[in-house]
Amino acid sequence: MATLKQLRRRIRSIKNTQQITKAMEMVAAAKLRRAQGRALASRPYAQKTSEMLQSLAAAAATLSHPLFEQRPVETTSLVVVASDKGLCGSFNMNVFRQLERQFEAEARRGVSLYPVGRRANLYFGKRDWTIDGKVPQLGDQLDFEKARLLALELTNAFIAGKTDKVQLMYTKFRTVASREVVIEDLLPIVPREDAEGAVAGYIFEPSPERIFDTLLPRYVQNRVLQAMAESIASEHAARMLAMGAATKNAKEVLGNLSLQANRMRQAAITKEILDIVGGAEALK
Fold it and tell me: Strands, E, within the chain: which ranges?
């Protein structure tokens, strides 16, 4: 059984930990507000751009652009977005576990990964996965240059025929308490099912080739950037909830330890009083 001195030492230690978790919760809440605003504000542009290009993909029958090319899928490039830091609950493990379930040992042969974030690089670097590229650090702020370079690498690999399909795997932000790990197709750009005849209302100026050469790389970059923004917002939400739960648990543990320490102190005081009374009685 722990002594009173040991209990007091544990109480001080837990109080210090509680202060840290409370501070981390507040920092995560402040970062979440900014990250959530960026993720939600960029969704309409990303969605409309995707819908427009899927409609224009119906023109691929007359316009041969490499990013519209659909071929038998033998190799797949998968961008996996995780976080740089821990202490965010099961945020990272949810991504990793779903990926492990999605691609069993046999299915991994034709899959190459592009891990984004320090945790993803550490996790997959120690396992039997093919790594074709990576982003070592994601950061708390959106980095357009990282998204541009990764999008360029993915686009070049697809055009060169090194991969037949490119997908994005990230945690989509729903609400502060709700997040969802999703896998979305990035390349090739496939026509919408209801896009037949949709291109008839479009007038291409100066030319379809020049428009697609300019618009498609930006589209890929924007999709990668959106995945990063969603993941960063989800990470801060997960960390805020995890640190909030840790602070609450520390409070409960402190209550139990304080009660135990008070009982031991009261028992020691009672024993001393009994010793004094006993000694006084013996002197009579």
Answer: 76-81, 111-116, 130-131, 165-175, 178-187
34 lies in which domain range?
Answer: 22-192+202-241
Question: Catalytic annotation on 88?
Answer: yes
Partners of 172 in the β-ladder: 180
| Peptide bond preceding 188 in cis form (omega within 30 of 0) | yes
- pLDDT single digits (tens) 170-197: 999 988 888 999 999 988 887 766 555 5
Go through the chain and tell me how many residues it has: 284
Q: Check: CB of residue 119 under 8 Å from CB of residue 87.
A: no
Q: Please check whether residue 155 lies inside any domain of the structure.
A: yes
Question: Which among 88, 151, 168, 233 is annotated as catalytic?
Answer: 88
Strands 178-187 and 111-116: unpaired
Q: What is the pTM of this model?
A: 0.85
Name, in order, each residue with C-beta under 8 angstroms of 131's C-beta and a sequence gap of 6 or more.
112, 113, 114, 115, 124, 125
